Amino acid sequence: MFPLPDRIEYSTVITDNKGEVINAFLTSDQKWRMKTNLDEISPLLKKTIVAKEDRYFFYHPGINPVSVTKAFFKNLFRMKRTSGASTITMQVARALEPRKRNILSKFIESFRAFQLEWTYSKEEILQMYLNLVPYGGNIEGVKSASQLYFKKNPDHLSLAEITALSIIPNRPSSLVIGKNNDRIIEERNRWLRKFAKEKVFSEKEIEDALAEPLTASRGVVPHYLPHLSYKLRKQGGNLIRTTIDLNTQLKTEKLVEDYVRAQRLRNIRNAAVIIIDNRTHQVISYVGSSGFRDTMDAGQVNGANAIRQPGSTLKPLLYAVCIDEGLMTPKSVMADVAINYQGYAPENYDDKFNGFVSVQYALEHSLNIPAVKSLRTLGKDKLVEKLVQCDFKQVQKDQHKLGLSMVLGGCGTTLEELTGLFSCFANNGRYITPSYLQGDSNHVSRSIISPASNYMINQILTDVNRPDFPLYWGATEKMPKIAWKTGTSYGRRDGWSIGYNKNYTVGIWTGNFSGVGVADLSGSNTATPLLFKIFNTIDYDSDEEWFSQPADCDIRQVCSETGMIPSEHCTHLTTDYFIPLVSSTLTCNNWQEMMVSPNEKTSYCRNCSPERGYKKKWYKITDADIQAWYEENLISYEKIPEHNPECELIFKGNAPFITSPSNGNEYLISKRSPEPLQLICKTANDVSKVYWYINNRFYKTSNSGEKQFFVPEEGPVKISCTDDKGRNRDIKIVVRYVNL
User: Fold this and answer.
1) Is position 53 annotated as part of the catalytic site?
2) CB atoms within 10 A of CB 400
3) Which tens digits make up the pLDDT trace of 295-307?
C-alpha cells in the first residue's frame, strides 16, 4: 500500500582500465549523482560518517529512541527547534521523498526508515546515504563531491577530507568548498577534536588530519574519451568500466590532433583511430575525430563508428580464404589485364595493367583486377560469410545486394569492424570480438582462416618493398616490425591504413566527415604515416618475436611462370608456401607441342597433318586476354602459326569471347551526334583472323585482337564473331537513340 520510493537515478560514470573516472553525464534532473559502490566505501569513510552522523547506526532499527527523547525535551524546554534526532536511515528516507520540515514529515520519515531497515542491510542503507547526501549546488553523493572537489575516488579520501565533506550537508549554503575554506577548516577541526575526545581515531591520525591544509575548490568532471563514452552511455548502466588505457588514449589523441592540423593544408580535416591490445583483445584507445570540440569540421561525429567504403582493405581476407580453398598460393600467377564481367570493368589504382603477376605481388601492390578475378573464382558469398562471422553489420544487411565490387570497397564497413578483422591476422586466424568493457563475457571466438593461410598473408603484408612504404627513414628507424594494409575508397573520400604485430592492432581512417573527396587523399599518403607514428609511440623499438610458421604450412618448389608444380619444360623455379592436402597439385601446363611446317608458318592438327614434311615444336600457351595486352603494349611473343587453311575440321571450344559490347546491356546513343560502339574480342593463341557479323550480316574481317567500330541500328542487335577455326560466339544488346 505504501511502496518505498527507492528508485534512484544516477549519473553515468565512465572509468578507464584502472578504475579512474574519465567521463560522466548529468542525470535527467541535472544533478551530479555518481553512485558510490560498496567496494568504494573504505573503512575510514564508513567510520568517520557513522561517528559524526549516527554513532548507533548499526544498533537501532531505523530510529534512535534515546535521541528522539532527548531532542523532544531539549526543544520543549527551549521553545524552539535546537536539535534533531534524525538517524542516517531517516536522512535517506528524507532524501528519497523530500517534504516540508514538520511533525507529520517526521512521522512519515520514521515509517520510511522502518521500511528501509526491513528491506536493506545496514551496509546498503549507508551506501544509499553516501549516494544521496547533498554537497551544495547540483552535487549529490560523496563520489560526486570527491571527484569535483578533490579529483579522486571516495576510497582515496583522507580523514581530513572526509570530515570536511561530512560537515557541508549541514550548512551547504554557508560552507562552500573553494569560497569558505577557512570556515570549513574551523568546523572540520572542531569535529576532529571531538573525535579525539571520544577516541574514535588515534592521536596520530587526528594530529595529521588537523595539520592537513584545505586548498580544494569545485572543479569539473573529466570528459576524456568523448566518442566512446557517448556510445557506451546508450547501452545504459551507472558505472561503465572500459578497457581504455588513459595514458595511451591521451597520447593518441595528441598525435591525431597534431597530424590532422598539418593535413588541413591538403584539405584533409579529420581522422579516427582504434588500438586493440592483441594479448587481451581489449580496445585500449578509441579516437573518433581529431577534435571533439571542433565545430568547424563536425568533430562530434564518431568517425570510428561511421559506415564508410573500405577500399582495398578486404583483399588480405579474400586471398587468405582463396588459399584455404586450395585455389591459389602466394606464388600462383594471374593475369592483370582488362576484364569485363557483364558490364563491370574494374581498373587498377594507377589505371595500368601489369600482365602476369603473382598473388603475392598483387596483394603487395594492391592490384584490383587480380582481386576481382579471385573473388569471382571463390564466389562472393563465401567472402560475405567470413565478414558476417567478423560482425560486419552493414555487410550482413546488404549481403544479397553485394557483387564483385565489394572487394574494392563496394560495401559498407566501420573502422571498428576493420580493426577487429585485422586483429584476427594477429591471432593465428582466429577472430575474437574486441572488448570495450572490463569483464566482458560476450567474447565470441571464431576460426576465420587457417593458421597456414594466416601466416602466408602475414609474410606478404610485412614486405617493405611496397609502394605504400613511407620514404622518410625517420618514420621507421625505431619502429617495430609490423604488417599493414592500406585502402582508398572510390572518389578518394576515405584513406585507410591498418597495421598489426603480436602486441597491437592499430586502425586508421582519414578523410572528411562532409564526404568531400580530395585528390591527394589515399591510404598510403595520408593514413600510413599516422599509423607509423602511433606504432612508434606505443611500441617503440620493440624486438617482439614475429609470427612463426605453423605446422600445417609447408614449402615447395614451383614454376615461377605459373606458380604450379614444375614440369620437365619449366626452367625458372622458385619456392612457395602451400598447405598439404589442400593446395592444388596440378602440374604446370603452359607449354604445348604442335606439328608445324618446316618454315614454321603453318600448324597442323592430327586430322590434316601430312605423312612427312613437318616437325614438332613446343609453344607457350598464351591466353586471349594476355595476347590482347601484349598487342596493346607492343610486347613480342611467339604465336602459334596459322592453322592449315586446307583443313576442313571445325574446332570446338575456345570460341572468341566478345568483351565489347557487353552482352545483354542497353546502350543509349545520342541522336544529334551518334558515337560508334567498339567491337573487341579475345581469341585463342592459334587464331589470326576473326569475322564480325551484325544481325547475321557480314560486317568486317580483322586481325585477332584488333579493335573495330560500328554505328548500330535502333532496337535489338545481334553481334556475332567467328574465328578462322570456325568457332563462333553470339551476343545480343539493345540500342536506343535519345535526345542527349
Assistant:
1) yes
2) 7
3) 889 999 999 999 9
